[in-house]
Structures are given as C-alpha cells and as structure tokens.
What we know:
Number of strands: 14
Number of helices: 9
Strand order of the largest sheet: 3-4-5-9-8-7-6
Shape: globular
Distance between the termini: 41 Å
Structural class: alpha+beta
Radius of gyration: 22 Å
Order of helices and strands: HHHEEHEHEEHEEEEHHHEEEEE
Oligomer: single chain
Largest sheet: 7 strands, mixed
Strand content: 25-35%
Amino acid sequence: xxxxxxxxxxxxxxxGTYLSGEELSRALHIxxxxxxxxxxxxxxxxxxxxSKTRRGYRxxxxxxxxxxxxxAARIDTKTVGRHILCFDALDSTNxxxxxxxxxxxxxxxxxxxxxxxxxxxxxxxxFHSPKKGLYLTALLRPDLPGAAVMPVTALAAVAAMAAVERxxxxxxxxxxxxxxxxxxxxxxxxxxxxxxEGESGRVQYIAVGVGVNVNExxxxxxxxxxxxxTSLALETGAPVSRxxxxxxxxxxxxxxxxxxxxxxxxYRRAYRENCVTLGREVRILGGGAERxxxxxxxxxxxxxxxxxxxxxxxxxxxxxxxVRGLYGYV
Length: 330
C-alpha cells in the first residue's frame, strides 16, 4: 500500500522535481526510515528512483509492465502465447489454466500473475509467490497419448534455463527433475499437470507452470526458505526485467512444445550438460522406502539413473530426490 502511494506522489511531481523524505513521511504517516525501506523495495522491482541529500526523491523510470500487448510486441511464436492473460494476483496460474482448459480454452494460452496467493509446487507443497517474481502457466493441448508427453517437465526445465540466460546472462543448473538452481540455491520451480481422456488415455491438456524468483531480496524469503532460495536480482546485483523474462520464457516454451513427441536429442543433451544432480550423491524418497546412491545419468525419457551402494541401478521416475550439497541436504 505504501509503495503504491509513494509512486503516485512521485509521478505527480511536475517537471521531475524532487519530493523530500520528510514530505513522504508526513503523507504516509510513517518514519523516514520506513520511507527509505519502501523506496528500496521499489528499486528492487526495477523502478529507477533518484535520491539527493537535502532534496529528496524523484522517479526517473518505471519498469516495463507485463501486459498482453507488451508481450505480443516482443514474441514470435507458433502456438504458445497466441492468447495471453495477465493478472495482478491469482491463487495459482496452474489452477486458472486448468479451469480454462475445462471451459474450452485454446491450445497455447498463457496465464501470468504478478503474485500468487495459493501457489503450488510438487507433492501439494505451497510455492512462495510474492509480487517480485514471475509466475507463468502455458496451456498445451498436444494430440498425443499420455506416455508421449512424460518428458514435458524436463523440456520445460531446459526452456526455463534458456529463458533465464537470455534475460540476464546467467545460466542456471537443473536439479532433477523440475527445479532451477544458482549458487546451490533454488531459483525456480516447475509444476506440470495433465488431464487425460479416461477411455483413450490421450492428453486433453497439459498445464506447464513455471515460477521464477526474479527481483526478491533476502528479506523477501520466509525464514525456512532464506537459506536455500535465491533470485535473479540477488545473483546479478541488479533488477531484472520481468517483461523480458516472460517474453523469453514464452518463446522457449513454444520451441519445447514443437519438439514434444518428436526428436528430443537436443533437449536431452542440454538437460544432461546442465543437470546439477548428475555425479552427486542423492537420497530418494518414494515407494515406501528411502534409498541412497550416485546419480549417474538420465535415460531417453529423462528418468534419473541411480547406482546404489550395492552396485544395483534403478531408474527413478517419480518421488522426492534430495541432492547432497543442495537445499540443506548434507
């Protein structure tokens, strides 16, 4: 609320004149220290706010808004992004996309929210989704049987990795199967949900959700996530354009969608080269038992091949996989 008022007051200044911290403090009924904190939060979101001693603050530039029109002007895609919906807040972009699918929404719909109030991760976990991140779901309707779309999460991970690199020059790693990591900390998560026809087993829809920590600072993460999460701004030292990232992600998801059901060799190579899980000790939870071993490779369907201590190998396709050295697992 304070940030919106500060922006309104700064934008109201004629000819770019300065507004003092004292004036902002009086208008908002908060301390000047609190004003400074709100200004810093706005800067972390990409607002260029100049400050000068004894003069105050003035707004130099605002970040480009993530709107359907702005995205349409930036993207060149075949399917994904043909129709785009943007919201200030949703409970979950995946939930919205799934409901839209059941109501007949077309192949390639993209749903974006500035904030999720009920963001979801794998296994029903909550997904922390403050306003400084990017939350995007692509609705896909491939004419394929269920077995043919199993690699979709891995393809989305490669797409998200490429989009991040395009937007800010950093290439994150992939933790099998659906996280992006930088500096050993979680940067992004992917949640794919399918709807299948009961009789034929063919795919009715896939909701591919990607959540990226973009401009959060350390204080934006709750205590349980602060030691294991990071953001693009924290890693680059500067705000990152959510619009540029969203456009890149839509284009990369469109490329991945075009490859689904065909030759996945290029995606498989990219996944293997950037998978931080491979070559490390892992702990597997699933099937009613806990196992440990060395992650050796991913197979043709992106299953994780693990060699256990007794030398036996197993291919993991579901369950929870913890990687030694990541997210506090030591």
